[in-house]
Amino acid sequence: MKRRILFVLLTAFLLSMAGVVLGEDDVQKAPSCKYCGMDRAKFAHSRMLVTYDDGTTLGTCSIHCLAVDLAQNIDKMPSLIQVGDFNSKKLIDAEKAFWVIGGNKPGVMTKQAKWAFEKKEDADRFIMENGGTPATYDEAMKAAYDSMYTDTKMIRDKRKMMKMKGMGHQ
């Protein structure tokens, strides 16, 4: 009996470790962002995953693209919003995370970066090394909505330039 319990515990531990080693399942289920097409594994440090109360989920590359989805699905209630920890890339509860707005690291899909950290000391260290201001999830999401027009314009301008370069125009 003790052997069986030990085997079950060991199996559970190995399976949980395999999830960590293989990467988050959410990236395998949604490898690219629905809104911008960016590789969510490459942007694991900024990716987000929302689970709605109807059981549907959506993975995005950033808080910018999550804000787009939340605005489009105003009648759906999120039951859980997760974000990649900037350092470990592990998904954490976005509302419990320690957020940093701004700083000298370029943001994902935005001019004003918004990063999440599982530990307050990691957020504080980031601010000391890179600048930025501490924030809550609500403040980070408000900043995402506040910059939506300028960020969308920036993205369109970049894509236009890339398209022109690809066609041989300078």
Overview of the structural elements:
45% of the residues lie in helices and 18% in strands. With 170 residues, the protein is of the alpha+beta class. A four-stranded antiparallel beta sheet has the order 2-1-3-4. A three-stranded antiparallel beta sheet has the order 6-5-7, with helices on both faces. Helix 3 (63-72) crosses helix 5. It is globular, with a radius of gyration of 18 Å. 31% of the residues are buried. Mean pLDDT is 89; it is low at 12-23.
Q: What order do the SSEs take from the amino end to the carboxyl end, as H and E?
A: HHEEHEEEEHEHH
Give a quick account of the main beta sheet: strands, pairing sense, barrel closure.
4 strands, antiparallel
Shape: globular
Q: Segments where pLDDT lies below 50 for 5+ residues?
A: 12-23
Q: Given the structure, what is the number of helices?
A: 6
Mean pLDDT: 89
Kindly, what is the distance between the CA atoms of the first and last residues, rounded to a whole number of angstroms?
Answer: 74 Å
Question: Which helices and strands occur, and which strands form pairs?
Answer:
Layout: H1 2-22, H2 25-29, E1 48-52, E2 57-60, H3 63-72, E3 78-84, E4 91-93, E5 98-101, E6 114-117, H4 120-130, E7 133-135, H5 137-146, H6 148-166
Antiparallel strand pairs: 1-2, 1-3, 3-4, 5-6, 5-7
Helix pairs in contact: 3-5
Which key terms come to mind for this protein?
single chain, alpha+beta, three-stranded antiparallel beta sheet, 6 helices, 7 strands, 45% helix
Please summarize what this structure is:
The chain has helices at 2-22, 25-29, 63-72, 120-130, 137-146, 148-166, and strands at 48-52, 57-60, 78-84, 91-93, 98-101, 114-117, 133-135.
